[in-house]
Specification:
- This protein has about 60 residues and is mostly helical.
- The protein has 2 helices and no strands.
- Helix 1 runs antiparallel to helix 2.
- The chain starts with 5 loop residues before the first helix and ends with a helix.
């Protein structure tokens, strides 16, 4: 049900790493606490939730 390749996985992991790195940098620079970590959790929840809905919709169509 998925069409991703190893490159897709690598790009996805790089985006998560970049999001985490930027979040930690912003937290350190601004003294914002856990804003970067919370933002990463929201990013993952929205991204994985959307993927779940799309794959379930395609599976139901079959």
């Amino acid at each position: 049900m998925r069409k991703g390749t190893a490159a897709t996985t690598g790009i996805w992991l790089a985006s998560v790493g970049a999001h985490l790195g930027l979040g930690l940098w912003i937290d350190h620079a601004a003294g914002a606490g856990l804003l970067g970590t919370t933002s990463l959790y929201a990013y993952l929840a929205i991204g994985l939730g959307t993927q779940n809905l799309l794959v379930r919709g395609r599976a139901a169509a079959l």
